[in-house]
TrEMBL record:
<dbReference type="InterPro" id="IPR011990">
    <property type="entry name" value="TPR-like_helical_dom_sf"/>
</dbReference>
<feature type="repeat" description="PPR">
    <location>
        <begin position="406"/>
        <end position="440"/>
    </location>
</feature>
<dbReference type="Pfam" id="PF01535">
    <property type="entry name" value="PPR"/>
</dbReference>
<keyword id="KW-0677">Repeat</keyword>
<feature type="compositionally biased region" description="Acidic residues">
    <location>
        <begin position="80"/>
        <end position="91"/>
    </location>
</feature>
<protein>
    <recommendedName>
        <fullName>Pentacotripeptide-repeat region of PRORP domain-containing protein</fullName>
    </recommendedName>
</protein>
<feature type="region of interest" description="Disordered">
    <location>
        <begin position="72"/>
        <end position="91"/>
    </location>
</feature>
<dbReference type="InterPro" id="IPR002885">
    <property type="entry name" value="PPR_rpt"/>
</dbReference>
Length: 489
C-alpha cells in the first residue's frame, strides 16, 4: 500500500457527526441571513474543547496532542467535497502547527499568556474628570456615624441607648410623679441608676418643674448627689436652682457679693432666669447689680428678658434705662432679631429714640437680615421723634428691597404721609391695603379722614365715613365735631 509518511509534529483532528441531520444542506434563511450574525460569546468555548463534548451542538471534537498518530485533514465545505478530498494531495491543504493551535485555543480560554518580563508593572493613575461638579465621595469614617441610626443602636449597650433618650427621661419623670407621697424618688431611680450618666437627669428635673412638683425635683437632685458617677454636674444643678427660683422656693443669701464670687456663671444665669420667669423682678435686679459690682459678666439674653419684663410696668422705667445703659456698654452682644425689635419698642415707649438708632445701626453692621417688623419699628420711632425725612428714606429703602408690607407697616407709613401732608402717596398706600386683602383699622380710617379734611376733599371724607360705619367703627368725639363744623360752613 502506497501511503505517505506523516510528519510527527502535525495534529490529528477527528470530527464525527452523530446525526444524519448534519448531512443536509442548511435552508436559505440560514445560508443568506438578513442581518449579520452576532459575534460569538467568548465566555463559552464551543469550538475546541480537548477531551470534552459539546452537547448543545452534538459535535465531538477530540484533539489528540500525541505525535505518533496519523493526521487526517478537515475540509470545511459540503459533504460532496469531503468525499472527493481523499484523492487529492495533502500538500494542497493548510496544516496548523502546535504553537498555532495553542495560540488559537488560548483565545477561547481566556487571556493570552504574556512573555516573561516585568510582571508587577505599575498602572498609571486615572485622568482627572473635570466634568464632574463635585469631587468623588469619600467614605465616612466610623467615628462620625450617627449614634441614632437603628443599625448603630442595635450594637450599642443599653446604657448608651437610654442615658440621653428624651422619651425615657420624660417617662422617668412621669413615674416619679405617680409615686405615692410617702415614697421617695429613690424607689424609681435605683432601678435605672446604673444606666444613667452625668447630665441625664437634667431633663427629668426640668420636666418635674413643669409638672409643678419642685419638691420631687429637689429630691431627685439630692439622690444624684449621692451617686459618684452622676455628681458633681453643673447641668442638674442649674436645672434645680432655676426651678426653685421660679417657684419662689430658693432663698438668696444676705451676702450677695460673696455668693456671686463663689457661684459659677451658669448657676447665676439659671437663678436670674428663674426669678424672671417667676415674676421676682426685684430679686433678679439685685442679683444682676451684685454681679455687675463683682465684675461678673452674664449673658446679654438675661438683660433682654429683664428689660422686657420691667418695660411692662411704667413704674420701673428708671430700672429699664439703667439696664439699657449697662447693655450699651458691652462690646459683644448676643441678641436675636425678635429680642432686638422688642427692646426697640420699649425704647420708643420710653422716648429713648437714640437707643433705637444705636440698636438699628449695630444690627445692620452685623450684616443681619432685617425684618419688616424692625423696619416698621424704626419708622415709627423716627415719626415719633419728628424725623420725617429720615423715616421717608427708610420707606424708599423698603421699596427698593421689595419688602412685603403687612398691616402695621401700612398703618405707620400712612401716618408718616399724613404728617408730611402728602395726599397722593397716602391715597396710593391706602389703595394698596385693599389690594393686598387687608381690612383697614380705625387708625388708618381716622388718618385718611384727617388728610382729606386738610386738603379740602370733603366728598372723600364722607366716603371714608361710610366705610367706617360699614366696618362697624364709630368716630371719636373730636373727629365728629370737626365734621359737624365743616357741614355747618
Amino acid at each position: 500500500m502506497d501511503k505517505k509518511q506523516v510528519n510527527l509534529s502535525r495534529v490529528c483532528v477527528k470530527v464525527h457527526f452523530d446525526s444524519a441531520i448534519h448531512l443536509r444542506k442548511p435552508p436559505k434563511y440560514l445560508r443568506y441571513p438578513r442581518r449579520t450574525k452576532l459575534p460569538p460569546d467568548f465566555r463559552i468555548d464551543t469550538f475546541i474543547k480537548p477531551g470534552k463534548e459539546v452537547k448543545d451542538h452534538e459535535i465531538d471534537v477530540p484533539v489528540d496532542w500525541r505525535s505518533n498518530d496519523p493526521v487526517e485533514k478537515i475540509a470545511f465545505g459540503d459533504d460532496k467535497d469531503n468525499d472527493d478530498g481523499d484523492n487529492e494531495d495533502e500538500d494542497d491543504y493548510d496544516v496548523w502547527e502546535a504553537d498555532e493551535i495553542e495560540a488559537i485555543s488560548s483565545l477561547f480560554k481566556g487571556r493570552i499568556p504574556q512573555k516573561p518580563g516585568k510582571l508587577n508593572r505599575v498602572r498609571p493613575l486615572p485622568l482627572s474628570l473635570p466634568h464632574k461638579i463635585r469631587p468623588l465621595g469619600i467614605p465616612t469614617t466610623k467615628k462620625h456615624v450617627r449614634n441614632s441610626s437603628p443599625a448603630v443602636l442595635s450594637r450599642l449597650s443599653l446604657s448608651k441607648q437610654i442615658y440621653k433618650d428624651p422619651t425615657f427621661l420624660l417617662h422617668l419623670a412621669r413615674e416619679i410623679r405617680s409615686l405615692p407621697a410617702e415614697k421617695n424618688v429613690s424607689f424609681v431611680l435605683n432601678k435605672w441608676g446604673r444606666f444613667l450618666r452625668k447630665g441625664s437627669l437634667s431633663l427629668t428635673i426640668r420636666e418635674l418643674g413643669h409638672m409643678g412638683i419642685p419638691d420631687r425635683a429637689l429630691q431627685t437632685f439630692c439622690w444624684a448627689q449621692k451617686q459618684n458617677h452622676l455628681f458633681p454636674d453643673d447641668r442638674i444643678l442649674t436645672a434645680t436652682v432655676e426651678i426653685l427660683a421660679r417657684t419662689h422656693d430658693l432663698k438668696l443669701p444676705f451676702d450677695l457679693e460673696r455668693f456671686t464670687d463663689l457661684a459659677s456663671r451658669g448657676v447665676l444665669e439659671a437663678i436670674a432666669k428663674g426669678f424672671i420667669k417667676g415674676g421676682s423682678l426685684n430679686l433678679a435686679w439685685k442679683l444682676l447689680c451684685a454681679a455687675r459690682r463683682g465684675k461678673r459678666m452674664l449673658d446679654s439674653s438675661i438683660y433682654v428678658k429683664l428689660i422686657l419684663e420691667l418695660g411692662k410696668n411704667p413704674d420701673k422705667d428708671d430700672l429699664v434705662v439703667a439696664l439699657l445703659e449697662d447693655l450699651g456698654e458691652r462690646d459683644n452682644l448676643n441678641i436675636t432679631l425678635q429680642d432686638c425689635t422688642a427692646i426697640m419698642k420699649v425704647c420708643v415707649r420710653l422716648g429713648k429714640f437714640d437707643f433705637v438708632e444705636s440698636l438699628f445701626n449695630w444690627f445692620q453692621q452685623c450684616q443681619n437680615q432685617l425684618s419688616i417688623v424692625m423696619y416698621t419699628t424704626v419708622i415709627y420711632s423716627r415719626v415719633s421723634a419728628n424725623k420725617y425725612r429720615e423715616a421717608l428714606a427708610l420707606v424708599w429703602e423698603m421699596e427698593q428691597l421689595n419688602c412685603h408690607f403687612d398691616l402695621p407697616a401700612y398703618r405707620v407709613v400712612i401716618k408718616l404721609f399724613v404728617a408730611l401732608n402728602d395726599l397722593p402717596r397716602a391715597v396710593r398706600y391706602y389703595s394698596k391695603i385693599k389690594e393686598a386683602g387687608f381690612s383697614p383699622t380705625y387708625d388708618i380710617y381716622r388718618d385718611m379722614i384727617l388728610i382729606y379734611l386738610l386738603s379740602g376733599r370733603f366728598a372723600k371724607c364722607k366716603e371714608v365715613c361710610k366705610e367706617v360705619e360699614l366696618a362697624g367703627f364709630k368716630l371719636d368725639a373730636d373727629l365728629r365735631s370737626q365734621l359737624l363744623q365743616i357741614e355747618r360752613k
